[in-house]
């Protein structure tokens, strides 16, 4: 190598290290994720929808489960009962039932005693919305804890008794007498308490004695019992818990976890993964899967105050509509906590009453929009990367909800739709755009199959309705 070529190579190396490499690193790590976006645009699949009206499927409104976080001690739902009732929830989840509602105390003899007044008020508000309670058995009562609210009890028999008495009170025939209540052992144990599986501060022990308490509950209505409500779906936790309950003959009616992601594919991967993992545990083949908190970001995010959160929610429920059997998904959360302004990027469907009458945010409107989809399920094929859809029919009327969700807010798509097995060749086609206008016009088809196309703007949703002519 000559001196000149060596100097040239040295200059190029320095130039690469000082200029090009930092630029490449910046773009590789930037939050806008430009390379991922470009790759997605090149490789994403467009939708080509087929709606088969000749058959029907069982259908449950998976969006009818709502969760309220521990924003305040008690009375969180009291100011918004009519607004929540309007959403027609079937279950409402709350946590902090022991540390926020002062349920457990020691009497003058030093024995455990229970005061249900504050918790009963919250449960009464849940019932007033038309929903049933889904109770996260959290956190550790001060009267039995070795430390704070996320520590283990001084005596495991005390924790067992707390669970037994809770179930006997809420589900007891001679107490609140509520059937089909869900009891979930803890809330995000991998975060709140730093619990592990099978070692150290062991969640399995927490679950073990809680299960004993549930088993001892007497004179109660049917109820569901499970956990672990981890921050995400983790195979080590799944295998650890199912293996343990199987070996120890413990009760497990459902397996729960939380999921926050802007990428809808992540939710689908979770459902596919857990279904695959369950095959190793045939004894528990009938358990229910529950995502007991969902959203697009587990932290505060301005998007929760905008239409973005609504479209992500609509896209999620369009995606999971085909997973009808033994699945619940809880939208988190119902009402914002009291921030320093009315809208502060909190997760709520509704704003806090601190700033006046609670305001319905776009995600609240998304649940209202979903509630228009009533009836029997109808198979829909041909989903794409961005466009998801599901369909229902009632009598002879059919509705198809289509969602074009793009986290980058860029993707337009002209969506082909083939309707197979129309009940009438003459009908009215109605298109209702989310938070926008409704248009309709008459159609006459040459056969009982009919094809059309609908242009979907980025982050938009529409309900297409076929109404047969009389």
From TrEMBL:
One of its GO terms (molecular function) is hydrolase activity, hydrolyzing O-glycosyl compounds. The keyword Transport does not apply. Residues 90-376 form the Glycosyl hydrolases family 39 N-terminal catalytic domain. The keyword Transmembrane helix does not apply. Keywords: Glycosidase, Hydrolase. Belongs to the glycosyl hydrolase 39 family. This is Glycosyl hydrolases family 39 N-terminal catalytic domain-containing protein. It comes from Candidatus Woesebacteria bacterium RIFCSPHIGHO2_02_FULL_39_13.
């Amino acid at each position: 190598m000559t001196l000149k070529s060596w100097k040239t190579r040295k200059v190029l190396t320095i130039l690469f290290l000082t200029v090009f490499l930092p630029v490449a690193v910046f773009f590789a790590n930037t939050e806008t994720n430009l390379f991922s976006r470009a790759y997605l645009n090149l490789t994403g699949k467009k939708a080509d929808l087929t709606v088969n009206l000749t058959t029907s499927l069982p259908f449950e409104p998976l969006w009818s489960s709502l969760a309220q976080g521990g924003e305040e001690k008690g009375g969180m739902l009291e100011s918004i009962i009519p607004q929540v009732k309007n959403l027609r929830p079937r279950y409402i989840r709350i946590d902090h039932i022991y540390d926020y509602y002062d349920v457990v105390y020691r009497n003058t003899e030093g024995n455990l005693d229970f005061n249900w007044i504050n918790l009963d008020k919250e449960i009464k508000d849940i019932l007033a919305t038309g929903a049933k309670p889904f109770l996260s058995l959290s956190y550790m009562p001060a009267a039995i804890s070795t430390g704070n609210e996320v520590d283990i009890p001084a005596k495991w028999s005390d924790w067992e008794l707390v669970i037994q008495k809770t179930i006997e009170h809420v589900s007891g025939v001679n107490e609140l007498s509520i059937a089909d209540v869900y009891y979930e052992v803890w809330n995000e144990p991998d975060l709140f308490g730093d619990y592990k599986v099978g070692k150290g501060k062991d969640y399995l022990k927490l679950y073990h004695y809680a299960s004993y308490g549930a088993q001892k509950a007497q004179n109660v209505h049917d109820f569901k019992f499970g956990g672990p409500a981890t921050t995400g779906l983790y195979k080590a936790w799944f295998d650890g818990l199912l293996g343990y309950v199987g070996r120890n003959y413990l009760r497990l009616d459902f397996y729960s976890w939380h999921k926050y992601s802007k990428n809808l594919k992540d939710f689908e991967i979770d459902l596919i993964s857990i279904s695959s993992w369950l095959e190793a545990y045939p004894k528990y083949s009938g358990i229910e899967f529950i995502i007991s908190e969902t959203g697009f970001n587990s932290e505060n995010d301005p998007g929760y105050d905008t239409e973005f959160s609504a479209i992500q929610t609509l896209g999620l429920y369009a995606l999971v509509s085909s997973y009808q059997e033994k699945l619940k998904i809880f939208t988190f959360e119902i009402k914002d906590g009291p921030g320093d302004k009315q809208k502060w990027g909190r997760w709520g469907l509704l704003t806090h009453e601190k700033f006046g009458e609670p305001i319905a945010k776009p995600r609240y409107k998304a649940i209202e929009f979903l509630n228009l989809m009533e009836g029997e399920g109808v198979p829909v094929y041909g989903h794409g990367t961005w466009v998801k859809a599901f369909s229902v029919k009632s009598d002879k009327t059919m509705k198809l909800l289509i969602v074009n969700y793009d986290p980058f807010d860029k993707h337009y798509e002209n969506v082909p739709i083939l309707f197979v097995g129309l009940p009438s060749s003459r009908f009215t086609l109605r298109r209702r755009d989310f938070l926008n206008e409704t248009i309709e016009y008459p159609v006459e088809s040459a056969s009982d199959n009919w094809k059309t196309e609908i242009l979907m703007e980025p982050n938009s949703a529409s309900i297409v309705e076929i109404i047969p002519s009389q």
